[in-house]
Design a protein that fits this description.
4 domains; Tetracycline Repressor, domain 2; rod-shaped; Exocyst complex component; 26 helices; EXOC6/Sec15; mainly alpha; single chain; 2 strands; two-stranded antiparallel sheet
Length: 815
Amino acid sequence: MASLETAAEHERILREIESTDTNCIGPTLRSVYDGQEHGLFMEKLDARIRNHDREIEKMCNHHFQGFVDSITELLKVRGEAQKLKSQVTETNGHLQENGKELTTSMEELRQCRVQQRNIATTIDKLTHCLPVLEMYSRLQEQMRAKRYYPALRTLEQLEQTCLPKAGQYRFCSIMAENIPKLRIQIRDTAMSQLRDFLESIRKHSDKIGQTAMKQAQLQRSLDSSVSPQPRVLLGRRGRKAAPAAIRAGMGVNPLSEQDTGILDVEDEEEEDEVPGAQDLVDFSPVYRCLHIYTVLGLRDVFENYYRKQRRKQARLVLQPHSNMHETLEGYRRYFNQIVGFFVVEDHVLHTTQGLVNRAYVEELWELALSKIVAALRTHSSYCDDPDLVLDLKNLIVLFADTLQGYGFPVSQLFDMLLEMREQYGEILLKRWNVTFRQVIDQDNYSPIPVSTEEEYRQYTSQCPFQDPELEKLPFPKKLPFSEFVPKVYCQLKEFIYACLKYSEDLHLSSTEVDDMIRKSTNLLLTRTLSHCLQYAIKKKNVGLAELVQVIINTTHLEQSCHFLEEFISNITNVPPDTVNATKLYGTSTFKDARHAAEAEIYTSLNAKIDQFLQLADYDWMAAVPGGENLAASDYLIDLIAFLKSTFSVFTNLPGTPIEHATLPGKVAQTACMSSCKHISTSLMQLLLDPEVRQISMGALHQLDTDVKECESFARAGPVAGFQGDTLLLAFSDLRQLLDLFTQWDWSTYLADYGKPTCKYLRVNPHTALALLEKMKETSRKNNVFAQFRKTDRDRQKLIDTIIKQLRNLIAQHHT
């Protein structure tokens, strides 16, 4: 059994050896050597080899003839092959010999092809690199020329187009690394230029505004001279056409490289042209920076920065100097800076898209307007010079017109000017108060002498005056009024002109101007001139002659009031009879002044009379005179002489009836009557003076003599115009009282008291009682031994009886 298995295993190994590659026979043989039947296997292997040899031999025997034939043919072929080889070798030799030149040419051609390909590659690379280098060179040139916006455009094209096409070269990498740095440099440089620009326009706002206001002033003069014509250009632009013209010349695309903001002013060389305000400013830094930041995607940052900086500058511009109110130049600099600021903003508004918008500019203007109005109200309140206020008003109007030409609303400024009109009026009143006082102080209070027709016409041309009777008189002659009248009338007209000057260019209607002038003139008449006239009347050392001349002057000024009305109507073109037109109060003003002068005359006369009366030295205890006639007191004689000379002055008072004037001689009559009444009252007060406790009959006789002297003066008619004995009525109270005592007619007085026909109707029982009490006291003290004389006792009893009856009469009357 074991032998069978061994034989089968050997058979398998032999088959494996036959069928397996010799490289892998090792493991198979190892398995044989590892077994115990090595010899047996070798025997089987030999038997198998012999078997295979027999089979090979059989096969060879079977194919031997074909093999011999093949060898024979092969030998033949070998001879032919040798010949072929010789021919091929020979041919190859010839071919090699002949191909050497071709090989050389082919090598040369190959080298040329390589060079050609290298050249084409180089050209291609250079084609992509040269634009990069050229563009970078252009970039450097633009940077050196400070053309930053084109440089930024070049930089963008270099980065996005040229460098990607050029390839990965070291110089390209260096350029790519420098691009962000160049952008930052351009941005910072543009911002630096913008800061310089902002600082420059802040410093030069005064000059810009001055030029703009000159344009506006020239435009106004052109408009006034050619009112029907359309507004013409100033310089190269009109005031309103300026922004449009600038926009048309510059474009409004903020991303346009041509929009540099530099205005063309080369052609503006004509002598009588004013350069445009924008011609003074190079706006290219603003546009350049705006374009650069737009390209960099930082437009919002730039807009916010620009607006913030301009707001700060606006606050600085709107802050007035503390001494601005001292001179007009201070106001002018203030307005110039503001106009310059807003001219720049208006130009930026119309030449950029969105850097500043209308809302932003209007907000700045509203802020500015409130601060301007507040500053002007504050500083103008310090001004007390009407000329400065008028110049300031004209400057404000020019300022408003200038900004209105750029589209800014200025109604608040004109409203403020109307407020300033009241202040201007008050300042004018103060100035004219000084002027009137100077006229009053310089006046000589004498009629104006004229020696020639020329002088006469000169005065009558200064103030309205017509007197046919005076014109008929030969030269030399005198005008009835003093220098005060023509000077005051001229000053009134000057005041009206001053008021008219302020109302110009305020866009007021003729009616409003007329009303303003009339109200201001009324204030001048009722306040200033009235006070000055009161000053002239009340000042010290004013004599009666001066007061008389004041009355004459005010009378003539009163007559001239309707000429003032016509004068105002002529300059305002408003008829005086217009409905609701304000009327001048000059008539009442001069009438009041005249009345005051008249009252002052009366007061002055009475004061002078009091001075004379202070010299009265009556002997109240004088005895009854004998048969000789008593003489009037010295002081009274002097007083009457003074009154006579004084009343002769009143012949110069107006004597022709005129409207609103005093009647002929009325002032003189009133003064004379007032003087007589004052004398009578003063003498009565002397009698009733509490300090005079005793009065004798002799003193009453002396007083009676003085009263008769006064009555003689009144009866002589010191002033014409009194009817009958009217002037004597001033002394009637005193006359009846003295007659009652000197005639001792008490029975008649007591019997007829209260009757209209009473002889002593003007004697007051209280007055009579007081005087009797003083006479009683005199009788008691002077007649110590009166009780020893029957006549004295009877007189004492009579006085006591009369006193008792008077007291009963007073009591009955009181009941």
